[in-house]
Amino acid sequence: MGRAPCCEKMGLKRGPWTPEEDQVLIAFIQNYGHGNWRALPKQAGLLRCGKSCRLRWTNYLRPDIKRGNFSNEEEETIIKLHEMLGNRWSAIAGRLPGRTDNEIKNVWHTHLKKRLKKNQTTPEKKQNSTETSKCETSNSSLSEPAINSQPQSITENSSSYDSVSPQQSSSEFSSGADSSSVISVDNHDMGTMGEYNESSDNFFDIDESFWTDALAVENFNMPGDFSPSASNETQVQSSISSNSSNNDDGMDFWFDLFIQAGMQPVLPEF
DNA sequence: AAGAATTCCAACCGCCATTCG
DNA sequence: TCGAATGGCGGTTGGAATTCT
């Protein structure tokens, strides 16, 4: 078959999303989840293709997204992970809670790559430095990343930040390609979204508090965060504890990765 | 003050992987 | 087992915002 076009060009809107569209999408996902992206826009009454809705949700509307500038620690983490993983933005995003692959990709192309290049032009000056600067450590990022050394067993889990239907259990969403997901977020997203309901007076006011309140971002610890949010804690704990006797899920790899990157995996207390 | 150049990022495109009937 | 449908990913782009001249 010929591949179906991403959007039926006929009658479907493109370009920037309006606040009204955002609100419709948020309200719909809050109430019904997003079992089928293709069908969602029609059901929600949006003149968008499903792909556009999914991108808008995952890259912008998802309640667990951390807005704002990247901290130095985050940037450093990106550089280090990029050095190890290459342009696997979703994998990198999976290690930076609250950040999307798109965002990380943008930051890489707009800031970090330039910064690394700049530092590469004057590497000698820094060689005597006893402390390894963040830029210097990542000079090698410009060369071929050690992507091939990654174990085959590792699967991407970027979608682990994808929100889920409020009616669906976390187990339903930990299947498939995400089965190895360690930082798999369950219905925490929609749980917090639950406070943000249609009956609320300010439901259609997406202000800063929406992001901060809904997120409980403080539950995340950077850099190289392994720490769970409050609601996915159980899952992470069980992942880690089961890993202590069973390494099949690849946790060891990620622990090694963090150690190599000079990062401190944050373990939950239990 | 204004036009040009540059930066930044949201959104799109197209391909690949996975799921499902 | 196969093909269609769908989801996900990385690369790219358009245009708004910002900075420079």
Automatic annotation (TrEMBL):
Compartments where located: Nucleus
Q: Which UniProt keywords apply?
A: DNA-binding, Nucleus, Repeat, Transcription, Transcription regulation
The record's annotation in Pfam families points to: Myb_DNA-binding
* Compositional bias ranges of the Low complexity kind: 158-185
GO CC annotations, alphabetized: nucleus
Location of the region described as Disordered in the Swiss-Prot/TrEMBL record: 114-196, 225-244
The record, for Gene3D superfamilies, names: Homeodomain-like
Transcription among keywords: yes
MF GO annotations? DNA binding
Its recorded name reads Uncharacterized protein
